[in-house]
Amino acid sequence: MTPSDASTPRLSVVVATYNRLPLITRLLGQLAQQTLPPERYEVVVVDDGSKEPVKAPLDALGESLPYALRVEVQANAGAAAARHRGVLAARGDIVLVTDDDMQVEKDFLERHLAHHPEGSRHVVLGRIRPDPSIGDMPLFERWYAYLNHRMAEELSTPGARAHGNHLYTGNVSFHREDYVGVGGFDKSLGQSEDVELGVRLEKAGCAFVFASDAHVLHGSDHVSFERWLKRANRYGMFDTHVARKHPDVRGVNPWRLLFETNPLARPLLAATVVAPEATRVLTGAVMSAAKAADKLGLEKAAFAGTSVVYGMEYLRGARNEAGGWTGIAREVVRYLQGGGNR
Q1: β-bridge mates for residue 319, sequence order
Q2: Whole-number Å distance between alpha carbons of 230 and 233
Q3: How far does Cα 277 stand from its chain's mean position?
C-alpha cells in the first residue's frame, strides 16, 4: 500500500537499516500481522547507505503489505541521522522506533499505543528480550542481553521510575511533536544519541514509562570482539560529549564508573585511566578469564569479567576525549557536582 492510499495514521514505526535486507524484510512481514488495523499505522524505513540498496526490493514488497510503507534512502550518515530522517518523514502522532534485527508479536503496536492515553506526553520504553538463539552468540553479546534483562527487572520493581538516560532506540515510542520540539537526535553524536535525546525529553516535561508487555525479541549478528571493544571506546568518547551538554545529570557522566562500579573492579578501571596503553594486556587477560569462566558454566563470573573489560575500554575512550589529566579532573569534578544519580 502506498502512503497516498491511507488516511493519516495514529502510529508511525521508524526503522533505520544498513546492509540487513533479510532482517528488515522479516520485521516488515511481522508488522503485517499486527492486531492493530493497518490504516492506523505506517512504517518508514530509512536505508542508511547500504552497499546493496534495499529500496527496490522493499518497494516491491510494499505492494503486498496491508499498511503504508515508505522507504527513504540516504548516503551513509549513521543511525542517528537515519532515524531522525525517518521521524521527520513520519505522519503519525505517535512514533515508534525499533531496530531492523528485532522481532515482534502480533499485538506489539497495540500494546505500545495502550501506554499513550489521550493527553499524555509519555515516552514508552518497551522491553527487549533476547532471542532464544542468543545462547549461540559470543559472550559479549550475551552480556548485553543480561544487562537489558537486569535493567528491565529493576524498572519493573514497584515504585521504580524510568528516566531519560534509560532511553534506547531498540524499542521506544513517543509523541512526534515532543521529539521535534526538543530538536530530535543530536546527529553529531556517534553513540549515545538515544540517551542524550532522552535527557532532553525528560527536561521538556515528558514522563518515562517502562512497558514490559510491549516487548521485542533481539538477536544479533555481531560476532567481532574487536568491533565490540571499539564500540565501548566510542561510547566512552561520546558520553563525555553528553556529560558536557548535561552536567546536571550524573547518570550520563562516564566517570561515574570509578564511583559506582563494584569496588573490586575499581583498581582495574583506575589503572586503565593511569596507563591506558600499558593495561591493554591486562584487559586481554581479564577477557580470557571471563571466557574460561563461561566455558565452566560460571555465568555470573563471566559476565562480571566482561563488564570489567567493557569498563576499561570505555574509560580509555573517555580519557582520550578528556585530553589529559586537567581534562580528566574537570570531568570528575563535573560528576561530583552533578545532580541526582539518574
Answers
A1: none
A2: 5
A3: 29
pLDDT in tens, 2-59: 444 447 999 999 999 999 999 999 999 999 999 999 999 999 999 999 999 899 999 9
Cα–Cα distance measured from residue 25 to residue 23, given in angstroms and rounded to the nearest whole number:
5
Distance of CA 262 to the CA centre of its chain: 24
Which residues, 6+ apart, have CB-to-CB distance to 277 below 8 Å? none
> Going by DSSP bridges, is the β-strand pair 41-48/102-104 parallel, antiparallel, or unpaired?
unpaired
The pairing of beta strand 94-99 with beta strand 11-17: parallel
Predicted local distance difference test score (pLDDT) of residue 251: 92
Retrieve residue 336's grid coordinates.
Answer: 561530583
3-state helix, strand, coil in the chain (%, to 5): 50, 15, 30
Count CA within 13 A, CB hemisphere, residue 78. 12
| Burial class of 227 by CB neighbour count within 10 A (0 to 12, 13 to 18, 19+) | exposed
Q: Are 124 and 209 in contact (CB under 8 A)?
A: yes
Residue length of the chain? 342
pTM of the full structure: 0.93
Query: What average pLDDT does the chain have?
Result: 94
**Between helices 225-245 and 139-156, what is the axis angle to 10°?**
40
In one-letter notation, the amino acid at residue 88 is L
CATH classification for the domain delimited by 3-218, as one of 3.40.50.800, 1.10.260.40, 3.30.1330.60, 3.90.550.10: 3.90.550.10
Place of cell 530530535: 184
